[in-house]
Amino acid sequence: MKFPPIARKLALVTHVVASVGWLGAVASYIALALLGLLSDDPENVRAAYVGMAVEIRWVIIPLSLTSFITGVLQSLGTHWGLLRHYWVVFKLVINGVCVAVLLMYAQSIDRYADRSRGALSAADLDYLRDPTHVLHSSVAAGLLLVATVLAVVKPRGLTKAGKTIPRGLAN
Amino acid sequence: MDDNAPDPHTNPDDAGMPRWVKVSIAIAALVLAALLVMMLLGGNHGPSRHG
Questions:
Q1: Residue B41 CA to chain centroid, in angstroms?
Q2: Using an 8 Å Cβ cutoff, are A94 and A147 in contact?
Q3: What is the pLDDT of residues A88-138, one digit of tens each?
Q4: Which residue of A8, A23, A75, A155 could cross-link A144, Cys pair, CB 3.0 to 4.6 Å?
């Protein structure tokens, strides 16, 4: 399957913008997660969790799905193929794992945001000061950084499929 | 002429699995094993935590 040049360029630009935007959004999410974890001010903690829930739903999930879909389209529509090169396969796995964990994680952040509404008791603050948010977002940022490096460097290496299937058919 | 010298026209992509792939797979396996151990030892983590 080959896309016309204009479609390839459009998919490439969309993929790059969504992927780098996703990494940037996760970086800002880490800042909010750290605020929620470390702040002594209940208002700051509440603001952090409400902001995190909004950012996940309206920024991070849309960017992640856009990155995943355009990445698959981009590989299918170019000579790189989806399974020909190790770096493409690695990016596919990283992207897929990040999207899957993100969609599961998004359900739990809503629970935290709901808990942060209203007057916060000491028990509420203990519940909200959970390092899991910093941990999840930091691991995600690390993986997305690796994916970005792979996309830029494009290290050599053909997979078995890439060696046996002619160029352009390993999609 | 050394018969054992690599063919300069051989595409490096045709060689076996590159070292960076082997190292990355080893690191990923170690991380997965560590996660599994944490979950088996009763750590409060895993997909069941979400939702």
A1: 25
A2: yes
A3: 999 999 999 999 999 999 989 989 999 998 888 889 998 999 999 999 999
A4: A23
- As given in the structure block, the two tokens for residue A63 are 């960017």
What is the rounded distance in angstroms from the CA atom of residue B14 to the CA atom of residue A3? 27
Q: Would you list the DSSP string of B24-48?
A: HHHHHHHHHHHHHHHHHTT-S-SGG
As given in the structure block, the two tokens for residue A135 are: 């941990």
Please tell me whether the interface predicted TM-score (ipTM) of this complex is above 0.95: no
Question: How many other CB atoms sit within 10 Å of the CB of residue B21?
Answer: 18
Which residues in chain B have their CB less than 8 angstroms from residue A163's CB? 13-14
A112: closest CA of chain B, how far (Å): 11
Could you tell me which residues come within 8 angstroms of residue A48 by beta carbon, excluding any fewer than 6 positions away?
Answer: A32, A33, A35, A36, A39, A116
As to burial, measured by CB atoms within 10 angstroms (0-12 exposed, 13-18 middle, 19+ buried), residue B42 is exposed
- pTM of this structure: 0.84
For residue A158, report the phi and psi dihedrals to the nearest 5 degrees.
-95, 140
- The closest CB to that of B21, out of A86, A104, A108, belongs to A86
Reading phi first (left if > 0) and then psi (alpha if -120 to 50, else beta), residue A112 is in alpha
Enumerate residues 1 to 51 of chain B having a beta carbon within 8 A of any beta carbon in chain A: 12-14, 17-18, 20-21, 24, 45, 47, 49-51
